[in-house]
Design goal:
single chain, alpha+beta, GNAT_dom, globular, Acyl_CoA_acyltransferase, Putative acetyltransferase, acyltransferase activity, transferring groups other than amino-acyl groups, Bact_Acetyltransf, disordered N terminus, Aminopeptidase
C-alpha cells in the first residue's frame, strides 16, 4: 500500500488525514460510478456546459453497466476511511481509462498520488508510455505531470453529442 503524508490545507490549516493509495483487484463498480458522477458534476463545469455534463454522466452510467473498464488495473485512494479517488489503466496498451477525485479533495494530492501509482504499475510491467483521452478540465493536470498534448479530438457520447477531449501521452522512459 502506498502512503502519502497528510497535507496541510484542510479547513483553517488543519492537517488532513493520511492518504492511502492501493491496488484494488475487485473494485465496487457502483461505488466508483458514484464518485465519478460527483467528480464530473463538480469539476466538469469548468470546461463543459450543462447539456454536455448531463450527456457525460449518462455515458458514464452506460459504460459502467457495460463493464467497459473491466480488466483495467484499478487503484483507489482513501483518506480518513473514505474513498476520495480512483484511477485505472489498461495493462495491454497503457490507456488511462479513468482518474477521478472527489470535489473537496481536489488540490490535495489525490490525483497526483493515483497517477503516480498508475505510472509505477505501468513501469513494473515494462510499459514505455501511458496515454489518456483527457477531458478539457483535466488537461492542465496532465500537462503539469509530464504529459504532452498530441491532438484535440471529440468523443462521441451515446446521445450523439460530441465531447471535446485531448489525446495526451507520457513517455515513462521504461
Amino acid at each position: 500500500m502506498r502512503r502519502s503524508p497528510g497535507r496541510r490545507g484542510g479547513p483553517k490549516g488543519t492537517s488532513l488525514p493520511p492518504l492511502h493509495v492501493e491496488a484494488c483487484a475487485t473494485p465496487d463498480p457502483a461505488l466508483l460510478l458514484e464518485l465519478q458522477l460527483r467528480a464530473i458534476r463538480h469539476h466538469g463545469g469548468e470546461a463543459y456546459g450543462p447539456s454536455e455534463l448531463s450527456a457525460w454522466c449518462d455515458a458514464a452510467r452506460e459504460d459502467a453497466e457495460a463493464g467497459l473498464l473491466r480488466g483495467f488495473q484499478t487503484y483507489v485512494a482513501h483518506r480518513g476511511g473514505h474513498l476520495v479517488g480512483y484511477g485505472c489503466f489498461s495493462g495491454e496498451d497503457g490507456l488511462i481509462g479513468a482518474l477521478y477525485v472527489e470535489g473537496d479533495q481536489m488540490g490535495q494530492g489525490v490525483g497526483t498520488a493515483l497517477l503516480a501509482a498508475l505510472e509505477a504499475a505501468a513501469l513494473a510491467q515494462r510499459m514505455r508510455t501511458l496515454y489518456v483521452h483527457a477531458s478539457l478540465n483535466a488537461v492542465p493536470f496532465y500537462l503539469r505531470r509530464g504529459f504532452t498534448a498530441l491532438v484535440s479530438n471529440a468523443y462521441e457520447l451515446p446521445s450523439g453529442l460530441q465531447l471535446a477531449m485531448v489525446r495526451m501521452v507520457k513517455d515513462l522512459g521504461g
